[in-house]
Specification:
With 450 residues, the protein is an alpha/beta fold. It has helices spanning 10-21, 33-40, 51-60, 70-76, 97-109, 126-137, 159-164, 176-190, 216-247, 251-259, 280-293, 299-323, 349-359, 372-376, 388-392, 405-408, 412-418, 433-438; strands at 2-6, 25-29, 64-67, 79-82, 114-118, 145-149, 168-172, 210-214, 330-334, 363-367, 383-384, 397-400, 423-426, 442-444. β4, α5 (97-109) and β5 (114-118) form a beta-alpha-beta unit. The structure holds nicotinamide-adenine-dinucleotide (NAD).
Length: 450
Amino acid sequence: MRISIVGCGYVGLVTGGCLAAVGHQVNCADSDAERVRALVAGHIPIYEPHLEEVISRARSDKRIEFTGNLAAAVESAEAIFICVGTPPLENGEADLSAIDAVARVIATEARGPKLVIEKSTVPVRTGEQLRRALEVYGRTSGAKFQVVSNPEFLREGSSVCDFLHPDRIVVGVDEPAAAEKMREIYRSILERKFQCPVHNGACPPGAPPQFVVTTINSSELIKHASNSFLALKISYANQLADLCERLGADVEEVTRAMGLDPRIGPQFLRAGIGFGGFCFPKDIQAFYRLAERAGMDFMLLKEAERINKSRIDQFVEKARRALWVLKGKQVSVLGLSFKPNTDDIRFAPALEIVRRLLAEGAMVHAYDPQGMKKTQAEFPTVKYCENAYDAVSGADAVLLLTEWPEFRELDWARVHGMMVRPLVLDGRNLLDPGKMRGLGFEYHCIGRPD
Ligand SMILES: NC(=O)c1ccc[n+]([C@@H]2O[C@H](COP(=O)([O-])OP(=O)(O)OC[C@H]3O[C@@H](n4cnc5c(N)ncnc54)[C@H](O)[C@@H]3O)[C@@H](O)[C@H]2O)c1
């Protein structure tokens, strides 16, 4: 099928690349001219494992192209995936202006019938507004539109794999024919019949994905409800960590045993400095505001968000307690991205911690395998280092803020010898406390006895 993707960010590029990989003809459009120039020149502007190979293979198979001409992208496609950003407004609600702008272009440029698919995360009832906008702006063109909600559940860092091997594909429709078209788009993924660009014929075994057809309102709600639930789970683990610290228990032991219960599951129970990224913080706020507008005080969500924000205060306080005075101290930060295997720094807890350290007069040296380029503009006074060893050299303290596996593998005995004071604050419980203390470190972590 001829498919257009509007919005070439994390979701747009993964969606476009993967749909091309399973045999569709994909045209990706974006309003950011610089981004389009980079993509046309063969440069992928984000770091995401496997994405570069997937897109470059699709390009050599002539299955994918990139354009700044939204009108042409709309006109050429039978199905259009809207993948633009929905960032938070100041009041926490989702900013839907990019969706509105795209709806106008689709409505005015379409000359034939189009399947218009909301892939961006949007509040419930956006589909209704989208359909209305398409009708109003497109009243003179005579084109017919079918609106579908198809939320994306990928995780940055493993998004290509998640897209090609999902647990479920949710489609919200208001007519069965639209669901059938969506099934057609995803057929090879649903039937696991494609040449997998990640596993090269050796995909991990597993049940094929469920194809879940709902109303558009339910589908939109499923996405916000899922992200908010995961955020709740993280905040629960974090609050549990605080209790463990007070009672002398070890949160890692507690959550490991909890997670063995299949009703609970092990994921999203890791205590640390809290969740960040472009999804959880904004989605939980948008969901809360949505409930409020519907006349309901969804306090549980507000509390999860409050707990998450307080992680930063608590961690900075821990650093302050350990270092006594932050002003003039060299604090070395390992990890800036909001999680490992991505260069995405949006709403990353590490950034807020860096901001606080700088405000208190600390000299921040930092290293992140992928996130430094995007951080430089925001914090020009930070010293960005070539590698973790450069970053820790001469440090009064090391703050481990993103759980990149390579930080676990560092030669910590060597690090010990390079620091002015061997103090490590592990915000992700990545390291082994016994081993760190055995090496002579003063080591603090989250929810594990000191
Ligand atoms: N990042 C994730 O892990 C993730 C996962 C699931 C869902 N989502 C949702 O998907 C959506 C996109 O997220 P993202 O992380 O890819 O965002 P992003 O900011 O990385 O990408 C958005 C892209 O849309 C482009 N754009 C904005 N306005 C446009 C317009 N009017 N016309 C054409 N292009 C336009 C931007 O230039 C940018 O390239 C959001 O709603 C997000 O909540 C994100």
